[in-house]
Amino acid sequence: MITKDSSKIEVIAELEKNALALYDASDELKNDPDVVRVAVKQHAFALTFASASLQNDPEFLLSLIDNSILVVGFFNEKFLNDYTFMTKVVKKNGLALPLASKEIVDRDLVLAAVASNGLVFQYVGVFKDDREVLLTAFKQNFLALGYVDSEYKKRSEFMLELCALNVKALHYADEVLKKDPGFMLEAAKENIDALIYADEVLRSDRQFIFFAAARNIKALYYASEELKQNPNYMLDMASRYTDALKYADETLTKNPEFMLKVLEKNPPAFKYADETLKKNSEFMLKVVKIDADALEHAHETLKNQREFMLAAMEENVQALQFADKELTKDPEFMLKAAEKNVHALEYADAILTKNLVFMLEVVTKDGLGLIYASEELKRDPKIVSAAVQQNPDAIKCISKETLQKPEFAFIGKSAAQIDQWLQEQLPKNLELKARKNAYTDLLEQQIQYLSPGQKKELALYVLNEKEHFLKKERHFFRFEAYSNQTFSIHKLVKTLLEVKPTDGKISIHDEHEDKTHVLYRHK
């Protein structure tokens, strides 16, 4: 209960519960802006209990509008007739316009009011036909269009103009316009979301949606469910527009046959396949056959599955570009992949293509794997020799500069070429014995650069050459003969094959000639 003796704190506390209690407050508190403001916030009528000074203070009155527009109804009549004051009021809240004296309401005051609150358009009277007033109100609040004369809502140009400002204007468009394909296409041209207001007949019309989608594929979002479920229609749209399936019914994106047809016509559209398909290994293998790049959209559980990725790369080796990184670092997995297709190594992690043991195993099975070896390994004679022995074409992977190094002298060379090279390095005019010794000594120096296969081939080559100088024997009476039982031949075979005599004999089988050479003279 407020009395004349109540303190400011007590009065404010009471006013928050009962604004009209201001009537019982002291004159001092009725003249206190803070106290009156609390009361008016609770009930606009409380302004009538404020001091005359405050009720005639224009700045104080303007400050009250922020809390309650109804308070304007309790302003002194002189303020409601004051054009300058009321202009300030409607700029703060246009809904005060109906409270202004009719004598002062003009076009400028109306424009100021609707610019502040578009809904005040319902109170502008004769100014409803003023184009600028209407547009100003609409821009502030599209709901103002609800108070526009129905004749305006039938005018296509007018409604298109409003649609360009705010597509929600079409909510108020005449039903005839909403059924007009030409009008709705023009509206959609400005804003594709205009189609939400199109008549259902249009949204079910194949041709209408087709033309709308040609401008913006989002038109399919507003197409009827019947169209979005139609496999023939949606396949045609997907073949033209990648994002068409973004709006397709899930019965289609879950359909494996439909999605395979989509993949054939427009591979990028496959990204919209349902997750259930992307997890299906059998389905995704069919996908890889059509387009390996579509594997990008496979579920992660498939990308790190060994059996699936091996099967996928058999269909198309490019599938490995989408394999989980842990698989491409796995030597066992990548060896299996390389056995199926050596080009799988294009997708191997660098940690493997730099690994000597791994790459040696690769090139002994397919020399062309050398293509994918690190540059350092391509300069390793052991790797290069093994690769070239498996596939002579592997030598094309090595730079000319590398091949000029001495350790690469025998890479890719036949036994005859190796023998010729060794003989060409010998000093001229040596006696037979000295020449033989020089040859075998040189061989011991160079043997580290020969592959196991080359060692055996060279041994067999010399054994099969009828008049190789290492076989030459000089007898009494200067009679010359050639034999595989010379000391030099024995030394050559032992050096190349690193074998020890068995029962005083050394045997070496020639698979090409299907015969066995037996050396038995020297131990």
Automatic annotation (TrEMBL):
Pfam families: DUF4116. Residues 15-55, 57-104, 106-153, 157-203, 205-252, 255-303, 306-349, 358-401 form the DUF4116 domain. InterPro entries: DUF4116 (IPR025197). This is DUF4116 domain-containing protein. It comes from Legionella brunensis.
